[in-house]
Amino acid sequence: MHVAIAGNIGAGKTTLTKLLAKHYKWSPHYESVDENPYLDDFYGAMERWSFNLQVYFLNSRFRQILEIRKGSKNIIQDRTIYEDAHIFAPNLHAMGLMPERDFQNYSSLFKLMERLVTPPDLLIYLRANIPTLVGQIHKRGRDYENSISIDYLSRLNERYEAWISTYSKGNLLIIDVDNLDFVDKPEDLGLIIDKIDAQIHGLF
Fold this sequence. Notes:
This protein has a single domain, classed as Rossmann fold. 57% of the residues lie in helices and 12% in strands. It has helices at residues 13-24, 39-44, 46-70, 81-94, 100-114, 130-140, 150-165, 186-203; strands spanning 2-7, 27-29, 75-78, 122-127, 171-176. A 5-stranded parallel sheet has the order 2-3-1-4-5, sandwiched between helices. Helix 3 (46-70) packs parallel to helix 5 and helix 4 (81-94) runs antiparallel to helix 5 (100-114). The radius of gyration is 17 Å and the shape is globular.
């Protein structure tokens, strides 16, 4: 079984991935943030590095999916390949931070990869408002994220909502995390697990 967690920057994807991997004994696949050689440069000069960053993420996630397909373990994945193509790259293009030529090149590459991609059995979308996202981003204290603007997060949130509203590749579970603390409140994590159990039982 392949479960994936989607959500904006700071929504809690990585944390929930760790907690669910531990609870269900699933094998976690994380987003390669710390190893990404473009992130610091990107947040310092988005227009210069947007294409490089997005191609790196696309390559990394496509590689992940191929590894998932080869194995027989139950997998939980932190972020999906679809978010890069439907949210982050189009947003950079719309903001004038990715030139048309680069965006078309990127989109063509994604469409080619998508033919070989099997969607997750269950997609969990973490919905969060801007204050929640900003609070989480500040709490984890990554230097390169200090320059992320409210406007940038808001644009991403709008695109996430538009994408999720039309998502039809598989089972979808939407979790509003604004009033949940699944790290420090076991009952909140239990609430999420109950919802996932209901979805999983419906898969079989």
